[in-house]
Amino acid sequence: MTTPAGHLFRQVYAALRGFGTRATQSIHFRLRTAVLMSLVVLLFTSIQTAAQTTSPNAATAAISDAAKQGFPLNAGTNVAGNVSVEAVLIPPKISKRVLGGVVGRDYAVIALTISNRSSDSSLIVHNIFIDYTNWGMSGASNGSCSPTTNAAQVPWQASSNPCQVSSVESRIVRGQLLDRQPWTSRNWIIRALQGLGSIATAYEFTLSGQHAIQSIGAFTGQGEPAVEMFWPDATIGQMNRISDLGFQVNKVIPKESSDVVVAFFPIDRFLTPGLRKLFLSSPALFFATDALVLDQTARKKAEAFVGPIFGNNKDTEKTFVNELATGSLSSENQKIHQFLQKLSLNNVHITVGGAMTVDVNDLPPIVNSVDFTLPDGKKLSDVLGSAGTVNAVIGGSFLAGGQVAIVEAQDLGISGVTAVQDQSTDKQLYFKFTLSKAIPTTQQQLTFTVTKKNAQGVTIQSPGFVYKLKQ
User: Mean per-residue pLDDT for 400-409?
Assistant: First the structure.
């Protein structure tokens, strides 16, 4: 039974077999050889699975699936306390498939889920970096991880920290993948077929048989396009994922929302060539570092690194394994174990830096409630029915630094309305006032307002909040 590939093979071979005169036989032989080798490569090269979906939701799902197969990392944030970060290292073999071979080979890819629980402000992500000060292979010594520039002396300059590695911007990573795109296995084979078809078409005038010319037409018109359609370009979907999810400065995380951001850290920045090769083949060894000794398969890969730790002495290594299994390490083996633990990437910390987009000082205070603090056994009518000091708290938003006013104060003999700032927050404003006389029982309500000043000294006032005295 003849397969389509075999039929195409014979057609191309028959077309090229009748090429030209003896003077051009050498050239034609090389052309035939090139075509045959390209077809052989095409037929026996493993076809890559393409990811053509370009929607952000599909891209997020792909990254989330990859992250589930990754390694959790420490993460922190230097923004407000209501922003949290979860980070996971995506294994190189997964990132190669999802984000491209050049990305999986050159970068440690970390997916971060950044959650902004603030109900008032959005978060602008300024930077993402890893800090490996406490990592055993950081090369850090006392004081070497501090910025060298004295900001107090040179206030218009800022210096980086030698032990902090920033994520590469997604636009750079995408450009790297775009530059590599023409030379992926799929693309250079397709281009070779296109080039050979063009050359064969150019030599049609040397052919004597009509079937040969028709065969070349079939190859260029149907065969090559069919191969191109059957083997789509996976880098298109990969570049879209990088554009949708890759780290870019000033990315906005909306309030009460979360998003996935993928950070890219150059492996060559913190791993030497031998360790880089080990990391790409088995990244788990850099987290569970005891496995460097316990896992025999891994031990063979890491022999050049682990052997010197034990003085290349198998008996010493065997003793260490036995003591580690029993949980009773000698003082010497404890030092070795501590050293192995310091090699773990669990000592690397990931930090997200940013700022909240809303300046709360520019927003008018919002008053949602007023609650009076009542002494034990007293009712509100008892407190307001006699002269004295009254304590209360206003609940709302953007209340920090606010001052309280009571609209009916002058008529009711209310004075000394003062905010208690050391107890107050952005959500609660404690205050007190003094009654010079009892509030009449005919008084139906009290109206509260909060005012504050922004950075420019402009006074901003809340709408009045009416508290009903007769419920």
Answer: 92
CA dist., res. 127 & res. 129, Å (int): 7
d(CA 408, CA 302) in angstroms, rounded, equals 80
B/e letters for 251-284, b = 16+ CB within 10 Å, e = fewer, are bebebeebbbbbbbbebeebbeeebbebbbebbe
What is the token pair recorded at 361?
Answer: 């000082």
pLDDT tens per residue across span 418-428: 999 888 887 88
Nearest to 134 by CA among 275, 343, 285, 338: 343
Look up residue 421 and give its amino acid.
Q
Nearest alpha-carbon partner for 131 in 353, 337, 284, 286: 353
Which helix (H) or strand (E) segment holds residue 4: the answer is: helix 4-17
Q: What share of the chain is helix, strand, coil (3-state, %, to 5)?
A: 45, 25, 35
Q: Tell me the two tokens of residue 9.
A: 């093979």
**Token pair of 465 as six digits:** 């909040």
**CA–centroid distance for 208 within its chain:** 62
| Closest CA relative to residue 134, chosen from 296, 338, 409 | 338
Question: Torsions phi, psi of 419, nearest 5?
Answer: -80, 140
